[in-house]
C-alpha cells in the first residue's frame, strides 16, 4: 500500500506538469526527492487530512495492511484491532463486538471514531459502533489507519481517544472477480462475492455477502448479516474525480446477559437491523497550489427489539397488574434497549493549499444533521434532533530538513450543547530521513451524544408490595462536553532495507467531566429509592507507554514478525450518586495494565502462507457486567492460519485456507463471564476468476 501510494504520486508529477505549466517545487505532488522514492516511508492522511510521511505526522498511527489481515486468522473486522498497541477488542456476545483504546469502557464503547473511507459509522442512537451493522466484510478491506490518541482536531468529538479509518479495496485495483466461502464451528456460514470492472472514464466494484452463525452452545446467541455495496469512481477530467458509494444491509443478532450461567436466565433475544448509506465525494485539483474536496454522506439505521407479551408481563408483575402496566406504558416495555431508528446527513468541504515546499494548510467546514427516536431508550415515539457545525484546519510547516510543526484545531457547535474548541500542537524532529522524535499536546472535547442528553437508561419502578410497572426515561439536559488533555512523546525509526520499524508512544491523558451513569434520589421509586441519568461525574488519568516492532527475518522463507505491547496505569474515580454506598467508585482496575500481541507470518512459497498470532490481555474489570463474584481474568489466545493457492490458468486461481482460533483450547471470557471463547476451526475457499 505505501509503495503504491508513493509511486502513484510520483507518476502524477509529469502529468500535472503538462496540465499546469505553473507546477513547480511548491506542489505537494512534486515534493518527492530521489531519496523519497527509494525509502519506503508509509504515507498517512487520517491525522490531519494532509498526505504526510509517517515520520512527520503529529500522532501515533498504526497501519493494518492487507498482509497482516491475511495472516491474522481473523474472521471479524473487530478482531484486527488486537494487533494495535494499547487497543482492546472483545466479544460482548458472539455477534456483538467492542473495540476500545485504553479500556475504561462497557459493552457500548463510545470514545473511538470509526470510519469507512472517511464516512463515520458511529451511531448517535447508541453512542457506539455496532460492528455487525457496518455492512462490509474483512475481505473488502485494503488497509486500516488507526490514530492512537485523541484526534478530535481533525475528525471531531467521536475521536475523543482515537480514530479508525477503514479503507476498502478501490475499484481501480483488483479488476477481477472472486467468490469466497467460509464454514466451520458455531455452524458458521459466510459467503461473499466481488466483481470489479471499468470503462473509459469510470471504474466500479460490486460486493455482496452473507455472514451467519448459531452462537455458542450455552446461549445459542445466533446472528446473521446480509449486505450489498457498490463503489464507483468517475474521472470526468484529468483534474477532477468523483467517488460514489452505496450500500444496504440487514440481519439480526442476539442480545442477552452473558453473566448468567443458564440460557433461561440470560434471556437472549433476537434484535434485527436494517441499514443503508450513500456517499459522494468530489476531488478537484484547481492548480498546483490548491485542491478541493466536497463530501456528502447519509446513514440510516433501524433496530427492532422485542417487547413483553401480556403473558410475560403477567409472570413479571402479576396477572392483576397487567392492564395497569400497559396503561402506564402505551409504547410497550422492551426487553432490550437496542431498539430505535436513526438518520444522519453530513456535508463537508475541504481546501488544501500548498504555499511552498515547506508550508501546507488544510481547512474545512462541515455540518451534520442527525436525529434519533426510540421507544425503549427515550420512552417516546418522537424524534430527537441535533444540528451541528464544525470548522477545522491544520497547518504543516517544515523548518529546514529537521523540524516539522503541525498546528491544528476544530471548533464544534451544536444547537443542543453549544460550542467547544479542540486544539493540537505537535513538533517532529527528524533525526534522519527515516527516523523522528515527536512531541504533541491535544486538548480534546467530546460533545454529548443525543443518547447522552436524552436518556441512555430506563428503569422499572414497582411499588412496594408489587403492583404495575412503569418504565421511565431520565434525560439530563445539563451534561457538558467531556475533556481530554493529553501529552505524548513518540519515537519512530524505520530500516527500509530490512522492512523493520520501531514505533514508541509514551502518553499522559487526563480525562475530566466524563459522562457516566449517575444514581439520583427519586421519591417515586419505591423499589430502591434511586433512578439513573447521565452526568459528568467521572474522571481518570491514563499514563503509560506502548510500542510496535515490525521486522522481516533473514530466513530462507519470506518471514515477517510484528510485536505489540501496551502498558497503562489508570487512576480515577466516579461519583455514583447518593443512592450508592460507597458513593465514589475507583476506576483504577477498569482498564488492563498490560496488553500484548505477536503476529508471525511466513511464505514457504509464492503460493502458500502460514500465519500464527498470539494475544494477551491483563485482568480487567469492565464497567459493565463485572462483580467480585464474576471476574474476567487475564487470558492468552493463539490463532493459526494455513493458506495455499492453486493456479488454474493465467486468469483463474483457487485458494484454500485452514483457520483455527484459540488453537490450544484455553477457554476464556473476554467480557461477560459465561460468554466463553473455546477452540474454533474454519475452512475457507476462494475462487478468483
Secondary-structure arrangement, i.e. CATH architecture: Beta Barrel
Strand proportion, as a percent range, falls in over 45%
Rg computed from alpha carbons, rounded to a whole number of angstroms: 25 Å
Count of DSSP E strands?
37
* Overall 3D form: globular
Question: Portion of residues in helices?
Answer: under 10%
Q: Structural class of the secondary structure composition?
A: mainly beta
Distance between the termini: 23 Å
CATH superfamily caption = TonB-dependent receptor, beta-barrel domain
Tell me the number of structural domains: 1
Uncertain regions: pLDDT < 50 for 5+ in a row? 1-38
Summed over residues and divided by their number, the pLDDT gives a mean of: 90
3D architecture notes:
This protein is mainly β. It has a single domain, classed as Maltoporin, Chain A, CATH 2.40.170. Helices cover 9% and strands 54% of the residues. It is built from nine helices and 37 strands. The strands form six sheets. The chain has a 22-stranded antiparallel β-barrel. Strands 3-8-9-6-7 form a five-stranded mixed beta sheet. Strand 25 and strand 26 (500-521) form a beta hairpin. The radius of gyration is 25 Å and the shape is globular. The two termini are 23 Å apart.
Amino acid at each position: 500500500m505505501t509503495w503504491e501510494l508513493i509511486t502513484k504520486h510520483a507518476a502524477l508529477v509529469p502529468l500535472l506538469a503538462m496540465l499546469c505549466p505553473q507546477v513547480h517545487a511548491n506542489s505537494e505532488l512534486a515534493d518527492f526527492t530521489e531519496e523519497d522514492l527509494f525509502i519506503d516511508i508509509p504515507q498517512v492522511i487520517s491525522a490531519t487530512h494532509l498526505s504526510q510521511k509517517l515520520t512527520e505526522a503529529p500522532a501515533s498511527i498504526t497501519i493494518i495492511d492487507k498482509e497482516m489481515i491475511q495472516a491474522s486468522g481473523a474472521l471479524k473486522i473487530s478482531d484486527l484491532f488486537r494487533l494495535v498497541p494499547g487497543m482492546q477488542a472483545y466479544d460482548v456476545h458472539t455477534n456483538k463486538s467492542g473495540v476500545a483504546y485504553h479500556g475504561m469502557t462497557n459493552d457500548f464503547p463510545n470514545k473511538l471514531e470509526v470510519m469507512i473511507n472517511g464516512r463515520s459509522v458511529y451511531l448517535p442512537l447508541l453512542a457506539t459502533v455496532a460492528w455487525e451493522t457496518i455492512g462490509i466484510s474483512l475481505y473488502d478491506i485494503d488497509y486500516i489507519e488507526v490514530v492512537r490518541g485523541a484526534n478530535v482536531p481533525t475528525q471531531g468529538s467521536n475521536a475523543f481517544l482515537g480514530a479508525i479509518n477503514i479503507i476498502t479495496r478501490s475499484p481501480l485495483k483488483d479488476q477481477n472477480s472472486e467468490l469466497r466461502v467460509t464454514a466451520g464451528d458455531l455452524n458458521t456460514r459466510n459467503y461473499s462475492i466481488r466483481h470489479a470492472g471499468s470503462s473509459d472514464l469510470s471504474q466500479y466494484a460490486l460486493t455482496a455477502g452473507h455472514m451467519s452463525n448459531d452462537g455458542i452452545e450455552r446461549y445459542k446467541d445466533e446472528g446473521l448479516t446480509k449486505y450489498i455495496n457498490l463503489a464507483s469512481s468517475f474521472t470526468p477530467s484529468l483534474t477532477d474525480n468523483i467517488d460514489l458509494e452505496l450500500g444496504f444491509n440487514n440481519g439480526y443478532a442476539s442480545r442477552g446477559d452473558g453473566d448468567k450461567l443458564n440460557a433461561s436466565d440470560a434471556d437472549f433475544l433476537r434484535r434485527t437491523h436494517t441499514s443503508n448509506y450513500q456517499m459522494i465525494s468530489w476531488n478537484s485539483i484547481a492548480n498546483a497550489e490548491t485542491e478541493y474536496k466536497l463530501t456528502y454522506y447519509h446513514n440510516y439505521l433501524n433496530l427492532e427489539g422485542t417487547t413483553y407479551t401480556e403473558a410475560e408481563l403477567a409472570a413479571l408483575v402479576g396477572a392483576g397488574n397487567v392492564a395497569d402496566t400497559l396503561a402506564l406504558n402505551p409504547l410497550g416495555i422492551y426487553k432490550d434497549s437496542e431498539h430505535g431508528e436513526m438518520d444522519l446527513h453530513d456535508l463537508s468541504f475541504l481546501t488544501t493549499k500548498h504555499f511552498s515546499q515547506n508550508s501546507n494548510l488544510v481547512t474545512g467546514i462541515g455540518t451534520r444533521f442527525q436525529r434519533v427516536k426510540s421507544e425503549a431508550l427515550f420512552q417516546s415515539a418522537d424524534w430527537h434532533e441535533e444540528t451541528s457545525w464544525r470548522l477545522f484546519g491544520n497547518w504543516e510547516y517544515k523548518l529546514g530538513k529537521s523540524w516539522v510543526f503541525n498546528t491544528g484545531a476544530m471548533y464544534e457547535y451544536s444547537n443542543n450543547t453549544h460550542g467547544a474548541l479542540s486544539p493540537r500542537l505537535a513538533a517532529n524532529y527528524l533525526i534522519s530521513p527515516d527516523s523522528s522524535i515527536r512531541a504533541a499536546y491535544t486538548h480534546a472535547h467530546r460533545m454529548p451524544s443525543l443518547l447522552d442528553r436524552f436518556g441512555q437508561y430506563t428503569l422499572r419502578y414497582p411499588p412496594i408490595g408489587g403492583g404495575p410497572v412503569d418504565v421511565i426515561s431520565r434525560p439530563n439536559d445539563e451534561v457538558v462536553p467531556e475533556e481530554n488533555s493529553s501529552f505524548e512523546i513518540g519515537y519512530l525509526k524505520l530500516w527500509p532495507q530490512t522492512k523493520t520499524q520501531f514505533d514508541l508512544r509514551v502518553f499522559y491523558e487526563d480525562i475530566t467531566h466524563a459522562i457516566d451513569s449517575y444514581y439520583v434520589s427519586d421519591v417515586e421509586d419505591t423499589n430502591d429509592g434511586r433512578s439513573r441519568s447521565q452526568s459528568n461525574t467521572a474522571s481518570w488519568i491514563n499514563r503509560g507507554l506502548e510500542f510496535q516492532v515490525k521486522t522481516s527475518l533473514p530466513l530462507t522463507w519470506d518471514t515477517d514478525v510484528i510485536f505489540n505491547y501496551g502498558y497503562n496505569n489508570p487512576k480515577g474515580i466516579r461519583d455514583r450518586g447518593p443512592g450508592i454506598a460507597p458513593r465514589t467508585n475507583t476506576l483504577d482496575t477498569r482498564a488492563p495494565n498490560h496488553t500484548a500481541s505477536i503476529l508471525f507470518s511466513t511464505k514457504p512459497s509464492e503460493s502458500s502462507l502460514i500465519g500464527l498470532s498470539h494475544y494477551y490481555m491483563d485482568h480487567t474489570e469492565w464497567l459493565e457486567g463485572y462483580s467480585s463474584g464474576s471476574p474476567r481474568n487475564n487470558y492468552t489466545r493463539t490463532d493459526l492460519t494455513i493458506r495455499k493457492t492453486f493456479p488454474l490458468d493465467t486468469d483463474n486461481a483457487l485458494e484454500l485456507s485452514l483457520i483455527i482460533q484459540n488453537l490450544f483450547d484455553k477457554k476464556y471470557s473476554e467480557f461477560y463471564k459465561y460468554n466463553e471463547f473455546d477452540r474454533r476451526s474454519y475452512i475457507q475457499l476462494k475462487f478468483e476468476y
